[in-house]
């Protein structure tokens, strides 16, 4: 986990000249501050852009938005459970794991953020077709993470066998941090990777070929890759703050979808602030094109992804009833004259 980013003056230039940061103005809501967690990853671009452009702070008024950047879902779930993060952008597998391990007591999914942006990229000299994947070494970011589950499910659909925990079998599943996956691909220690953006486009820039876009495996090419989650304790104590962050997210997604080029630039600028370097053009442009930004949590696909983890042997059959509370989001949407979203029968009763 990286240190929290600094928040400077509303409408003023940041000290390093990298762009604008924002401060609280006006009367605070029921909390003086809210800490928002996300990954330095384009599939979390709603958070990146909302932070960069001040959409969250504008809706929070006098409540200060603070930020923490994470490298992996389990550490963000731990921070939510510990109360050091209040609201976070998170992938479906860690959200399900966090919910089930706490017997449904620690977090809830309160909104959608992104769909797509996951690809199987391979070395075209070693893998030319789906059949060639058998016997090869394919990386995923982490044991049991969202992409790991997706790869294991796809392998099973090919009729091949892999031990989920060891990664050994007809395909060698190599759990490799996204930060070092391009190096592993370059030196030949892996033959391909099932990874989110921008790692997938980094591999393409290294000479890789997209063998499969995960979107093609889902109805309407839609599946959840990032949701918004909240600590149940914070949701109960500060519903007005949660609603304000959701308004900020809805405003951000609307701006992203109507200003795709400017939004891509804003996301990359915030990545540079958070990680120390922007993404190169030959990575950020194709990566951005493959991600859809949506307020819809795509709840039915989360249920399917949980089923895939069960089938892979990584998760006992979970009771996901209550993992969603979409009432605050749907209230925001109705205020905008929009129809709310369905929780696929997994909402708070």
Automatic annotation (TrEMBL):
Domain of life: Bacteria
Pfam families per UniProt: NMT1_2
Record bears the keyword Membrane: yes
Subcellular location: Cell inner membrane; Periplasm
Signal sequence segment: none
Matches recorded under NCBIfam families: SsuA_fam (TIGR01728)
Entry protein name: Aliphatic sulfonate ABC transporter substrate-binding protein
């Amino acid at each position: 986990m990286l240190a929290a980013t600094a928040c400077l003056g509303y409408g003023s230039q940041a000290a390093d000249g990298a762009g604008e940061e924002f401060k609280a103005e006006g009367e605070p809501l029921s909390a003086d501050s809210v800490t928002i967690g996300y990954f330095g990853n384009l599939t979390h671009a709603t958070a990146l852009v909302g932070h960069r452009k001040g959409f969250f702070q504008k809706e929070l008024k006098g409540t200060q938005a603070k930020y923490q950047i994470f490298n992996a879902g389990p550490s963000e779930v731990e921070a939510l459970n510990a109360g050091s993060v209040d609201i976070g952008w998170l992938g479906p597998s860690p959200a399900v794991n966090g919910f089930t391990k706490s017997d449904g007591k620690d977090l809830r999914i309160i909104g959608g953020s992104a769909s797509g942006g996951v690809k199987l990229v391979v070395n075209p000299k070693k893998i030319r077709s789906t059949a060639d994947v058998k016997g090869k070494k394919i990386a995923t970011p982490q044991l049991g993470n969202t992409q790991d589950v997706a790869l294991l499910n796809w392998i099973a659909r090919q009729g091949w066998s892999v031990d989920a925990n060891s990664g050994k079998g007809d395909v060698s599943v190599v759990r490799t941090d996204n930060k070092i996956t391009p190096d592993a691909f370059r030196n030949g220690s892996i033959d391909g990777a099932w990874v989110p953006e921008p790692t997938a486009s980094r591999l393409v820039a290294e000479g890789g070929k997209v063998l499969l876009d995960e979107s093609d495996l889902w109805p309407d090419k839609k599946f959840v890759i990032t949701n918004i989650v909240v600590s149940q304790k914070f949701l109960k104590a500060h519903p007005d703050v949660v609603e304000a962050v959701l308004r900020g997210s809805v405003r951000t997604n609307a701006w992203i979808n109507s200003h795709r080029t400017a939004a891509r630039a804003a996301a990359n600028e915030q990545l540079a602030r958070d990680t120390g370097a922007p993404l190169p053009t030959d990575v950020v442009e194709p990566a951005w094109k493959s991600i859809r930004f949506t307020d819809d949590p795509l709840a039915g696909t989360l249920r399917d992804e949980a089923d895939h983890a069960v089938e892979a042997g990584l998760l006992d059959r979970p009771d996901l009833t209550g993992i969603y509370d979409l009432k605050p989001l749907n209230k925001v949407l109705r205020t905008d004259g929009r129809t709310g979203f369905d929780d696929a029968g997994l909402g708070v009763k």
